[in-house]
Amino acid sequence: MSEIIAIKAREVLDSRGNPTVEVDVITKQGVFRAMTPSGASAGHHEALELRDSDKTRYLGKGTLKAVDNVNKKIAPKLIGLDCRHQETIDSILLKIDGTENKGKLGANAVLPVSMAVTKAGAVANGIPLYMYIGELFGVIPHRLPVPMCNVINGGKHAGQENSIQEHMLMPTGAKNFTEGIRMISESYHHLAKLLKEKFGAGGILIGDEGGFAPAQIIDIHDRLDLMLQAVENAGYNNMMKIALDPASSEFFYDGIYKIGEKSYSGGEMVDFYVDLCKTYPIVSIEDGHAEDDWDSWVEMTKKLGNRIQIVGDDLFVTNTKRIKKGIELQAANSVLIKLNQIGSVTETLNAIKMAQDAGWTAVVSHRSGETEDNFIADLVVGTSAGQIKTGAPARSDRNAKYNQLIRIEEELGEKAEYLGVDFRELL
């Protein structure tokens, strides 16, 4: 019943209307489907996302080459294998590709196959996906994540240059995940009201991740002040914290960081964040420095790492080699986890394990170009990571993840754990 009898890939659309790859892995127990997301501010060290570069289709962003790689190169090697042998199948995928960065097949061909195999394995074992991922990872899942919800979009997610990219709320004062999402949703709608009153209809345009993208606000202080006012209006003062993702590689030019009209050295950026943390209830900063500016990362961790979470995304790209270097240098204390940055489920689990073994947290994350696939909701529970970042409570590509987490929390019942203010606590 667990034998793979067919694999079929096709080109479908992501949340930005760009092509992506969807894969069906078929066993006698059914069709198991997975889709791969796509990033806008992608790190240079990420696994390759294979595009066709045919300007006559989808402005060159077609994925027919990746689809062809699944159907003609991957499928023949996996048909007949047991879908429950995740590590073996993922190692075969890596061997077929044979490159460091999935440069032959494309991570967007490898990943949906790996994810669909995981889904098939869960059904073959007769357990929910998050429980099956827990088995693969070596934990008994019971922990629901504290969400990071991007309610104001800047940077590439909002079509802006030299701008802080993500301004997120974290419901650390909630009793459980379901209550936390309600608090976020209510605060989000209060924020919409404030923005509409202040800027009219243009103030409530939304960016790639569902957060508002008012072009009239460039200064981060103005954005954070509005967020805190919305939280207060919703009645959740002191129950909500702030997380930031500046995505600073996007405004790093020849050793200088440029935000708006101002320029900063690496050390001055550290001081910029220190001052922000004194003024606002910030508990997490992701990609505060550029992806290869290791010295500034080390300095920031020395100054702020004992107070807040310092998260590496473009710095680490879910790659154990780069995470290992970061641990040795003490360049952060947390790693962002994106499946498509590395390309397979097994490699992703290894990245989370390495971070946690070092005493670091791991934040499971979406991409700005998302799909309706809610795999990461089960992944974050299955690994007990304790934090998820998947956008504002708007648009079905984002809410699909939140809704799945509500279902999982209901299913776990009294066993479910939500850490709230202790979101950095490891198992």
Walkthrough of the structure:
With 427 residues, the chain is an alpha/beta fold. The protein folds into two domains: 121 residues, Enolase-like, domain 1 (2-Layer Sandwich), CATH 3.30.390; 280 residues, TIM Barrel (Alpha-Beta Barrel), CATH 3.20.20.120. 40% of the residues lie in helices and 18% in strands. An eight-stranded mixed barrel has the order 5-6-7-11-12-13-14-15, surrounded by six helices. A three-stranded antiparallel β-sheet has the order 1-2-3, with helices on one face. α12 links the parallel β14 and β15. α2 runs antiparallel to α3 and α9 runs parallel beside α11. The longest helix is centred in the middle third of the chain and has 23 residues.
List the helices and strands and how they pair.
Elements lengths: L5 E8 L5 E9 L2 E6 L28 H15 L7 H12 L9 H18 L4 H9 L5 E2 L1 E8 L12 E5 L6 H23 L20 H15 L6 E5 L6 E2 L2 E4 L2 E3 L1 H14 L2 E5 L7 H11 L4 E4 L7 H10 L4 E4 L1 H4 L2 H13 L3 E5 L9 H8 L4 E3 L6 H17 L4 E2 L9
Parallel strand pairs: 4-16, 5-15, 7-11, 11-12, 12-13, 13-14, 14-15
Antiparallel strand pairs: 1-2, 2-3, 5-6, 6-7, 8-9, 9-10
Helix pairs in contact: 1-2, 1-3, 2-3, 3-4, 4-12, 5-6, 7-8, 9-11, 12-13
What is the CATH level 1 assignment of the largest domain?
Alpha Beta
**Percentage beta strand:** 15-25%
User: What's the CATH superfamily of the largest domain, by name?
Assistant: Enolase-like C-terminal domain
State mean pLDDT (0 to 100 scale): 96
The domain count comes to 2
Q: Which ranges are low-confidence, i.e. pLDDT below 50, for 5 or more consecutive residues?
A: none
**CATH topology (fold) name of the largest domain:** TIM Barrel
Topology as H/E string?
Answer: EEEHHHHEEEHHEEEEHEHEHEHHEHEHE
Put simply, the count of helices is 13
Q: What structural class do helix, strand and pairing data support?
A: alpha/beta
Distance separating the two termini: 35 Å
What general form does the structure show? globular
CATH level-two architecture of the largest domain: Alpha-Beta Barrel
Describe the sheet with the most strands: 8 strands, mixed, barrel
Radius of gyration: 21 Å
Number of DSSP strands? 16
Portion of residues within helices: 25-40%
Strand order of the largest sheet: 5-6-7-11-12-13-14-15
